[in-house]
Design brief:
Blueprint: H1 12-20, H2 37-41, H3 65-71, E1 78-82, E2 85-92, E3 96-103, E4 118-123, E5 126-131, E6 140-146, E7 152-159, H4 165-179
Antiparallel strand pairs: 1-2, 2-3, 3-7, 4-5, 5-6, 6-7
Length: 184
């Protein structure tokens, strides 16, 4: 499934953060006990608090015990790194696996998805794509949820034996419905 949806520019956040600090001077504290109109006039406005979006979310917390039960997942998730993106993987032996990946840099429009395998949909209040190659009938399906213009969550399901793509899509849809209310 990871071959169908390729994350782009995952190195960009690090580069942006590195470059963002270039050329900035540290704020000078005001002298204690001394006030002047000059110090007040040259005070910098408070920094803008950045939208933390997906950065504040641990992907393994997106499926709590009740959610896992609803989705048919009987195991705890294991943190993973997929091409620099944070992810969590739940593998139910002999049945199926589900991986939830958070991309803080790629919105739905940035993801490379074969148009013949993608269907536009909505999950809760978020735009989404369901991605499955029905002709391949390989038992895999993904639901990609857009989080603003520049972030997304990918839910991948693979059935053991790589068969029954419609079942994989139902499972991916169930997990997407459980994850979506927890997204910004």
């Amino acid at each position: 499934m990871a071959d169908r949806v390729r994350k782009k520019y995952l190195w960009a956040p690090a580069a942006v953060l590195l470059l963002a600090g270039c050329g900035q001077q540290p704020a000078q504290p005001a002298a204690v006990g001394h006030t002047s109109s000059h110090a007040t006039a040259s005070a910098q406005p408070p920094p803008v608090v950045a939208w933390t979006g997906l950065a504040a979310i641990d992907p393994c917390t997106l499926l709590g015990p009740q959610d896992r039960s609803t989705a048919g997942v009987s195991v705890l998730g294991k943190p993973k790194d997929i091409a620099g993106a944070r992810a969590c993987d739940w593998t139910v032996p002999g049945t199926f696996g589900v991986t939830v990946t958070l991309s803080e840099t790629d919105g739905l429009a940035d993801l490379e998805v074969a148009k013949k395998t993608a269907t536009k949909t909505k999950v809760g209040a978020h735009p989404a794509l369901q991605v499955a190659d029905k002709k391949a009938a390989d038992g895999t399906c993904a639901v990609l949820i857009g989080v603003g213009d520049a972030a997304s969550v990918q839910i991948d399901v693979s059935n053991t034996g790589f068969s029954d793509t419609p079942l994989a899509c139902r499972r991916a849809g169930t997990v997407a419905g459980l994850v979506e209310p927890k997204l910004p």
